[in-house]
Write a structure and sequence with these properties.
47% of the residues lie in helices and 13% in strands. By secondary structure, it is α+β, with helices and mostly antiparallel strands. It is elongated and about 75 Å long. It starts with a helix and ends in an 11-residue tail after the last helix.
Length: 264
């Protein structure tokens, strides 16, 4: 349930392209690894886009030694896969007649796969700075703030769940799954449990349990009863597991809750 967006940056770390000298990178006609290298054509397109930032299909084809039809085929496939974006070329000063040529750039998702990233390290360093300068109370306030927006979205998704805590847990599992947490809820002899199979900030939460504590508080509010966190991915368990005690009113009303798996 942690809001990873605020903890994770978006600046990729990249290294030099194999076979390309540092001085050649800045030239429009810079060479790229030839077709005989181990890199596939799509890898070579990706590397060139990474180095140039924005480039036309004609420039890509010329640099890679590919025909217009061949480079278009690769770009169309990368567009369909969400690896590149096409946009109008920015032309400064006077330009000729007609529309500017299209340039192609890598998407954020493609850039993430191009190098080594240290998002967890940055997030941990930021929280250490907060703890050092503001104390544990500041870390707790930060953690609470991170889950606030997610709590609002989950609450909106659960508005038709009713009052039964187990039914609400099932609705919450669905809302969390929609947020990317691969969650499911189930009934057990002592009540129910909510399981989250993904934690986006597990490494950070291992050092700063305030993140898990803020999340547990939110689960309790959304389910509508006291809950107990039994296990967390951040502390070496395979799944984040939250126990929801059985309610005496449920036992006497004869009301049942159907177990629904929402992580499929």
């Amino acid at each position: 349930m942690k809001n990873a967006a605020a903890l994770h940056g978006r600046q990729p770390t990249t290294g030099p392209v194999a076979g390309v000298s540092p001085s050649a990178v800045s030239r429009p006609d810079a060479a790229v690894p030839p077709a005989g290298t181990d890199l596939s054509t799509r890898d070579r397109v990706t590397r060139l886009l990474l180095e140039r930032g924005a480039i036309t299909a004609a420039q890509l084809g010329a640099a890679l030694g590919l025909s217009p039809a061949a480079i278009r085929r690769h770009l169309d496939a990368m567009l369909a896969d969400g690896d590149v974006l096409a946009r109008e070329q920015i032309v400064r000063g006077s330009r000729g007649r007609g529309r500017p040529a299209k340039v192609f750039v890598l998407t954020d998702a493609a850039r993430v796969r191009c190098g080594t990233h240290h998002y967890d390290n940055i997030a941990t360093a930021a929280l250490r700075w907060i703890a050092r300068n503001g104390g544990s109370e500041a870390v707790e306030a930060f953690a609470t703030d991170q889950v606030a927006a997610l709590e609002d979205r989950c609450r909106a998704a659960m508005e038709d769940a009713g009052d039964d805590p187990l039914a609400r847990a099932e609705a919450l599992a669905g809302a969390l799954t929609a947020e990317g947490y691969a969650a499911n809820a189930s009934t057990i002899a002592s009540g129910g449990q909510l399981c989250q199979h993904h934690c986006p900030v597990a490494h950070v939460a291992a050092e700063f349990p305030q993140l898990c504590e803020a999340e547990t508080t939110v689960i309790s509010r959304l389910v509508g009863t006291h809950v107990q966190r039994l296990a967390t991915i951040a502390h070496g368990d395979g799944v984040c597991t939250t126990h929801i005690p059985a309610q005496s009113s449920r036992a006497t009303s004869g009301k049942t809750v159907t177990t629904v798996r929402t992580d499929r």
